Amino acid sequence: MIEPFIKTHRYLVEHLHPAVRRSLMDSIDWSYRMIAIRGPRGVGRTSFLLHYAKEKFDPQLNQCMYINSNNFYFHGRGLDDFVREFVNVGGQVLIIDQAFKLPSWKDQLMAIYHKYPFLRIVFSTTSVDGDDKDMQHELDRITHTYVLHGFSFREYINQQTGVELGTYTLNEILTDPERILKTILPKVRPSEHFQNYLHHGYYPFYLENHNFTEALLKAMNNMVEVDVLLRKQIELSYLSKIKKLLYLLAAQGEDNAPNISELAKELGTSRATIMNYLKYLEEARLINMVYRPGGEFPKKPAAVFLHDTNYVYGMQAPDITDQLVMETFLVNVMWRHHTINKTRRSGVYLIDNRIKICVCDKNRRIKVDPEYYYAKYNTEIGQGKNIPIWLFGFLY
Fold first, then answer.
1. Domains of the chain: total
2. Which residues, at least 6 apart from 187, have a Cβ–Cβ distance to it below 8 Å?
């Protein structure tokens, strides 16, 4: 029974040619017995899991096995029989892609966890949480969870050029940008790659030979139709409302402070429902909600951005401006490891409750505030508190 899975695993690993080694690979303690790799569709979860198997294990020894929960076998038979055979042939690490699609998946994972104490389990799942009852499961208490994001601008440049540029902390970028620029600019010209990254570089499937926009829209639809509706147990009849809400948010342009009452009226639903939909869309990594300092859900956000700039172009919303794209970029690179809030001044953000960053065009004349750092676009260089905005793409 297990032979077809062994052949599939070997084929996938041997034919994997990752475009770039993801930095997350070195951030994970692979000795844990239960590891989750979370992330939205399109960021390369499957390639990441296979890359781990290829890098750490000889496929001929059967120590590691990749399986996809979409396989009908696991829906008909479950995991137990398969895992027993896998362990009997020397299996040590089981990789389960899209584990959340299995029936009673958390119970199944816990069952094999307890039954096979020497087995390590690595599984991927969506970024969308289940309901409150689901989140109190034993699996969530024992799992060590890591998040895989789309390509950073740094990873994109490394893939495009073959160089190996490293990451920098926010403090390094703010306090010594000139030193960092001197290490980057002799090797690459970021301005030659930045616009392409903003348009299509966040999702690894730009490397595949098909229409990127169509692939992006397909991934976005699957995020709503499968991840949100399935994980949140929402009836299919509400699908069109959620999709319409996402488009209305995209069409707001720079005036991205959502009018919850108007959105509720437009969709024929309640304010509370709109707020819940916003939360679901954010969990799916389709949007980012930004609050005033001290604010958080379920309060109304001060601004709603599409999650990344690829969405801005992919959805072909009206009123796409450079300012909107650059603010979307900054919000997206900051939220992972920093808190980001919107101030009442246009284009100005508060990072970690202490750092004020103003997003602006290099050619725009503005009154300089000594308390601000300036993330400037349409420039490749910077000095002092004037930092080229692309450099924030080196945070991860």
1. 2
2. 161, 163, 165
Domain boundary residue, one of 115, 147, 179: 147
The DSSP-derived string for 192-251 is GTHHHHHHHTSSGGGGSSS-HHHHHHHHHHHIIIIIIHHHHT--GGGHHHHHHHHHHHHT
Most confident range (mean pLDDT) of 22-26, 124-128, 322-326 is: 322-326
| Domain ranges, residue 311 | 153-394
* Residue 27 and residue 51 share a domain: yes
What amino acid occupies position 345?
R
Q: Which two three-digit tokens encode residue 306?
A: 């599409």
192 and 329 fall within a common domain: yes
Phi-psi region of 337 (alpha: psi -120 to 50; beta: other; left: phi over 0): alpha
Closest CA to 386 of 366, 133, 345: 366
Q: Which two tokens stand for residue 284?
A: 């799916």
Q: What is the pLDDT of residues 58-69, one digit of tens each?
A: 999 999 999 999
CA nearest to 122, candidates 73, 59, 40, 50: 50
Same domain, 293 and 362: yes
Please check whether residues 203 and 102 belong to one and the same domain.
Answer: no
Question: Are residues 78 and 138 both part of a single domain?
Answer: yes
Reported confidence tier of residue 18, pLDDT bands at 50, 70, 90 = confident
On whether the CB atoms of residues 392 and 380 are closer than 8 A, the answer is: no
9 or 232: whose pLDDT is higher?
Answer: 9
pLDDT by residue (tens digit) across 31-49?
A: 999 999 999 988 999 999 9
Kindly state the average pLDDT of the residues 88-107.
Answer: 94
Do residues 268 and 208 both lie within one domain?
Answer: yes
Q: Which contacts of 317-322 are long-range, i.e. CB under 8 A and separated by 24 or more positions?
A: 317/247, 317/250, 317/251, 317/253, 318/251, 318/253, 319/251, 319/253, 319/254, 320/253, 321/253, 321/254, 322/361, 322/377, 322/378
Sign of CA dihedral 75, 81, 87, 89: negative
- Cβ-contact 36, 105 below 8 angstroms: no
- Tokens linked to 189: 């010209």
Tell which of 116, 132, 147 closes a domain.
147
